[in-house]
């Protein structure tokens, strides 16, 4: 069984009313007790043997920005008791919390939502193909390569069973051609490789950008009608993009998950963050993926789990 804890906080205005007796009582309770108020802990059974606990801590964010000794002492007691009582393996503070509040198994949320955006390439391509009224296999895709080869390799392999027309634009033509040869032997996919941005995107219907376009020496002005999935920067005065540019995604969680976790959790965690927390821990990948975001197997498994479990995405378009 896997149990994950998500820490929530009190509203900033909560508990600030000038009631001297009540304030004194609350201070004493904070100093002496590690018990949480009734209703502070909520359990959501999202899968068999996989639960999310949302825990409303009796603190405001402003109180935890620079916590004193007594606050830290009590917070540690609460976290340790919570993890022991509910067999919680890992728990996370909201991203707004200071770094120094890492306590044993409870750390600042490392899941930003960017990894799930990276892993959703095929899902985004399907949305674009539907928008264009084409089969995804008929799309002409150009990938603009940046630094490193792992993510490029993963994307080529992911598209090897889907794409008939694939172009790679890169500064490292010789090295990339070696990667292409390996994938060709495995899948039979034929890929064009070029170091010219103008030539590479000329007939592209979709551009997947993995770099800062300013890193390329683009000698002439270019107009492109391609849809762009941007994982880098497309700020350049050399290319005029006339179609959509996707810079991120929003996530729609399965309705039953939203209902079970309640509304308060969304005040402290974005839905993309929650999707990463749920799916990566469900797949027993966890924070491993944060440092290995280009791993083909991880990307493929996450994409499949995302679709099978009823998650949906909405591209954020500029």
From TrEMBL:
Record's protein name: Quinate/shikimate 5-dehydrogenase/glutamyl-tRNA reductase domain-containing protein
Organism the protein comes from: Acetivibrio mesophilus
Taxonomic lineage from the root: Bacteria, Bacillati, Bacillota, Clostridia, Eubacteriales
